[in-house]
TrEMBL record:
Subcellular location, record wording: Nucleus
Phylogenetic classification of the source organism: Eukaryota, Metazoa, Chordata, Craniata, Vertebrata
Alphabetical list of PANTHER family matching this protein: HEXAMETHYLENE BISACETAMIDE INDUCIBLE 1 (PTHR13469), HEXIM P-TEFB COMPLEX SUBUNIT 1 (PTHR13469:SF8)
One record GO biological process: negative regulation of transcription by RNA polymerase II
UniProt GO molecular function: 7SK snRNA binding; cyclin-dependent protein serine/threonine kinase inhibitor activity
Pfam family, one: HEXIM
Family, similarity comment: Belongs to the HEXIM family.
Alphabetical list of InterPro entries matching this protein: HEXIM (IPR024872)
Gene Ontology CC terms, in alphabetical order: cytoplasm; nucleoplasm
Designated name of the protein: HEXI1 protein
Annotated coiled-coil segments of the chain: 30-64
Swiss-Prot/TrEMBL keywords: Coiled coil, Nucleus, Repressor, Transcription, Transcription regulation
């Protein structure tokens, strides 16, 4: 039951979380939804910038290791 039990709990948690998230979005006003969307866009932009920065650092360190 070890692996199967944890998989079940994880799937159950994911399904429960998804239902809760959908309900919370349905209860938001248009203004709240737009605000949420804009916040997600800002977060995505920051993550993309960080990802690009890390890639550049990785390439830089990879080039130094090859020398």
């Amino acid at each position: 039951m070890g692996g199967d039990g944890s998989e079940f709990l994880q799937r159950d948690f994911s399904e429960t979380y998804e239902r809760y998230h959908v309900e919370s979005l349905q209860n938001m006003s248009k203004q709240e939804l737009v605000k949420e969307y804009l916040e997600l866009e800002k977060c995505l932009s920051r993550m993309e910038e960080e990802n690009n920065r890390l890639r550049m650092e990785s390439k830089k360190h990879g080039g130094e290791a090859a020398e």
